[in-house]
Model the fold of this input.
Amino acid sequence: AQTVTQSQPEMSVQEAETVTLSCTYDTSENNYYLFWYKQPPSRQMILVIRQEAYKQQNATENRFSVNFQKAAKSFSLKISDSQLGDTAMYFCAFMYNAGNMLTFGGGTRLMVKP
Amino acid sequence: EADIYQTPRYLVIGTGKKITLECSQTMGHDKMYWYQQDPGMELHLIHYSYGVNSTEKGDLSSESTVSRIRTEHFPLTLESARPSHTSQYLCASSEHNPGGGYTFGSGTRLTVV
Done:
């Protein structure tokens, strides 16, 4: 079975600075998808960014980008120009191409400080 | 606007009561899921459905049951609530194609006293 590991339970960053959240996963599959989800306090979980494993180019969505290292099975999230609204739990998730079942990491709590 | 709705948002109920957590989506998604989120925020899949009349148990054993009589509706029922059921319950849905990710509801925070 696949596993997803987020080694940083909590992180903090000053407003306007850059922070990187780590995620590693374990799989024997070659085709899969990776995701980062954001869960603000008492609010809905939303999709931040996703990456298809067969694409070498790292995904980017405005201030959010990923560093996808397939051989190392690493999928980190970089948040540039951090804003107070980025304060949230961030979950890394993995999905087999054929399975459509998400496996989540344990989450990283990010605090953006003014 | 297409979305996924969970009610109630918060619920405090006494031990032994029967409760149903509602989940509805307007996106026409085939697949729906229930997750239990513990105080440490980790997510555990407890039920999923691939379509009408399809329900399966997830990775985490749960005393709850689900039904899928209509595509848009995926309610979760606890026949006799216990304090150990206190948790946040998240409903999600996805398209048939893999890779699109899930759309989540706002969750129901259940407290059993």
The first strand of chain A starts at residue 3 and ends at 5. The mean pLDDT of chain A is 93.
